Amino acid sequence: MRIERYMKASSIADAFAILQERPDNKIIAGGAWLKLTDPVINTAIDLSLLGLNSISEQDNEIEIGAMTTLYTLEKSAIIQKMYDGILAQAAMKIMGITIRNIATIGGCIMGKFGFSDIITPLMAMDAILVFHQHQRMTLEAFLDSKANFQDVLIKIVIPKTEARGYFHKIALTSLDFAVLNIAVSRKNSEYRIVFGSRPGVASRAFAAEQYLKELKNVSEDIINKAVDMAASECRFGTNQRGSAEYRLNLAKVYAKRGIEAVTDYEN
Amino acid sequence: MKVVNQEIPSIDGKSLMMGRQAYSNDFADTDSLIIKVLRSPHPFAKIEVIDISAAQELPGVVIVLTYVDFKRIPFTRAGQGYPEPSPHDKFVLDEYVRYIGDEVAIVAAVDEETAIRAVKLIKVEYKVLEPILDFETAYNNQQILHPEPEIHEMFPIGFDPKKNIAAQYHMEIGDVEATLNKCDVVVNETFYTQAQAHAMMEPHTCNARFDHLNRLVIYSSTQTPFHIRRIISQALEIPIARIRVIKPRVGGGFGGKQAVHGELIVASVTMRTGKPSKLVYTRKEVFESTYTRHPMRFDMRLGAMKDGTLKAIDCQVLSDTGAYGEHALTVFMVAGSKVLPLYNKVDSVRFGGKVVYTNHTPAGAFRGYGAIQGNFALESVIDVLCHKLQMDPIIFRQKNMIKEGESSAIFAIMGEGTEGTPMTMDTCKLEYCVQRGMDLIGWKTKYPRQVVSKDVVRGVGMAIAMQGSGIPLIDMGSAIIKLNDGGFYNLLVGATDIGQKSDTVLAQICAEELETTIDKIIVTSSDTDLTPFDTGAYASSTTYISGNAVLNAAKAMKSRLIEEAAIMLQTTIDKIVFNGNSFFDSQKKQKISLEDLSNRLYYNQNQKQVATTGSYVGHKSPPPFMAGFAEVEIDIKTGETSVINYVSVVDCGTTINPKLAQGQVEGGIVQGIGMALYENVIVTKNGKLVTNSLMSYKIPTRLEIKNLVTEFAESYEETGPFGAKSVAEIGIDTPPAAIMNAIYNAIGVRINSLPATPEKIWHAINERQNNQE
Amino acid sequence: MKIEFTLNNRTISTHILPGEYLIETLQKCNIHSIRRGCDTTNCGVCTVLLDDKPVPSCSVLSAQVDHHSITTVEGIAHETEKLSAHFGKEGADQCGYCNPALALAVFALRKENSHPTSTEIDEYLVGNLCRCSGFKNQNKAIAAYFEEEAYQEEQ
To answer: In this structure, which topology does domain B389-468+621-772 adopt according to CATH?
Structure first.
């Protein structure tokens, strides 16, 4: 990793303009994994002067600045409350505090990392990304977008709602990346079932969500059917942390536990 | 005892926490050349062309060395006594590279960036050779990894490189086949252990410079400064008197710093350039290019009678030493010699096998040193046998295990590379350890399992273990005690404090004998110019061997002081009473303080320096013993497993410092838990280590370790300093077997290859269910 | 490029390369307590406090600390001494290589939470690896330190 020039942007427009100048101009989100990459960065753009590092409650939404660190996220009373605190739980299970003090939510999203523990709960919370150029965009749409996305992420917006949530990360040790992570949420009859670290980037089980939505009451059989649908809808692969077969099993076991948790279903 | 067996804070802990200059790299000259090593990308290849011109021409590059720059002197990096029981099969640099990470070329430059760039400019044409990556196919493979004619063994160790054998051994007491034929029950099982990484927090590092006398001075993060000095002299043909090796504080070793690593490289660069140089291993180099634990396969057979009498043990081992044969024979032998005597009442016991070369990262010394591998196999298969006998594994062990006053024929037959030393167990509190551990874990209520919920089950399991206390007639330690004016002492020891806090323990032994406090004992360790010889920190030898040396030196000092006091007080030595501070003549009712005596000796009267030397070589190696009990909690749907309790009851003789001894045991337990559950080693089919960083190789964190209970048995080993035996390694031995036994007791599946990852356990649960259906 | 930052209450003005990491800059400032452990932001050995928050100095660009404050154990010597006494009592110290980083993290924890539970201590320090101690004596020492500090404050 080499950096030719370092500059602190004076405004979002300024950051965006520099970003557009060359493809090797990059925003430094936190820097946690920067040195593990091997690019030459022409201009490293620092957003720390732009006040993007806080969480605020608006009338209808919660706004999380893109430069909010994972540690700020997990300590935020707002985040700890919404969706039963799944985003805070996910953040606090990421590595150690030193990394969580530099890694930002924006960095977690822009990296589109397969192992991300942050994208999974955000997807279950219907997060919307606000960019300088692209404006508002759903998290899913962003993840589906092309690799070279030269835009400045300003904030992440989560619609305010009364909702239940479940998050679980399965990892070999507390400092490892997830073998699999899962988030399940429920707003009335609207469900989200999201698997991350499959090892690919998080994906939703739309058909299972739809199936649950159409039913009035859950039962053991219904949950089992939803779990099977969810597991067959999402693809699981093999890497050093686990096989596709094992991930599929984890997905089923924890999707069931997740649905049971958000529906208060007791077997 | 006033100082020994007391919980005294370590003498250097405060300074280290406060960040004082203390470790090898802190002492590197600021203008050191920075060394980087070009390493092989192939598991096995011959260097056909190596072009260093572009690297040499890069401004800032001072020297580039390849194999053509070194005389072909085979040696072993093992860092053992001389002659070594390891084959001399390594050259500083060779035209063959034998594993991914093997050294190809050395670059020294004015700064790190230049050195890294220069390494990339070296052009190498390799003739890629077919590697051996499966150690079970190495023996007699048509591919020979060490065809070079110069390599040799130092004395017979079964070295047979044409068959890819670094070492081999076989022994049999009684007739195993005949005994097995007569047994009511015979079990046989195969076990595999992985290439565990030491993962000490300080990466290997060393640095060199010439002093004002034009001598080569090396600071190194090493466990064996005296061996390092000897090996540098032999391998680089530098007169030994011209070399000084200083070991400052070391950030953990666990065996990983017993061998020579960068020392030959910094020595070569400084010798040839005249400039100071330093080499700090990257974490990737620590993983790929130092050592691992020897992976092993065990084929175990046990035979017993229906009443639970164990009759025969057959233990056949295949060990993977990787590309070079460091510690090949001795680690493999310890897998038998410090394990099999646990069951000393058998009619027949057989042990044997081969240690083979492969194109993996070399294996070397690692805490437990074969005993942990052997313990996992034996203590697992004992439980398999107990299950077949339908006998409580504790009752079985109580019936068959070694007890105080007993011996085993194995002690006389198997040593470390040589014949063994017969000994009886003058201290062996295993019966107490087992009984106490049972109570502490709550065996009676918890064995074999407890159901916590629909998906969660708990189980308990246990294992017993033994280790050694130094290598008899080989390991030697020595100490010099010097009295200073002002009445305090210098204690100079070659013993190597690598973070286990041996300086503190040795100071306690010294202070106890001299009836003083440890603030009066200034410890220096280790510096080949200043401190006396010691074989180093390995084989659980420091407390027992070096501790006895210190005790001998302190006894001599006490006698000398009494002699001098008698002269000063104009009386005879039998009239003098010394209480650590003052000398009293009871008849004449006069006294002199130690402070006054020392001041007079050096400034005024009967002037002379008072200094004494003590040394010690063991005539036996009294084993510490322990019983380890694991309680595990398993999610039967996912295989996720955690150790919720680990109870250790240890007989290590007197604990010189109970808190530090507890630290040794618990540090070992956690590394053992790591080996049992977390430390997965993944190598691609091309021989590339995937788990080559702390990101991918997972050691236990403080959240994985739920509850540890550690106690010591009352025990006093007559030959040890103030009754002590060793405590450095014993803690690591039991977790693999105890945890696998606990998993079996919880869910009825047995994991025979380490580590037992959740996925592996889940597969085993599935297999069991499929078999039942 | 030039940066200015506070190091242990002292103002440092220094030239750095744009891609330079804080650990390198601090070592040039003769800070010995910051050591390398892993190269992959996994071990915690290089921890420093950036505006009182523990961060890995191997992964923070020096350019990022311009006009910020950095603390190393040299800057909290008194607190470190008190903590080390508890480590000594519990036999929690072994090789010591990770201990300055651990002391900084404990100091940061105390600023956030002066009465942490045993679990909260472990959760806060999980990123500070140790291969020697077995962790439990460290936890006891740190808990004892918090207890004593709380007691002192009440007096």
So the answer is: Aldehyde Oxidoreductase; domain 4 (3.30.365)
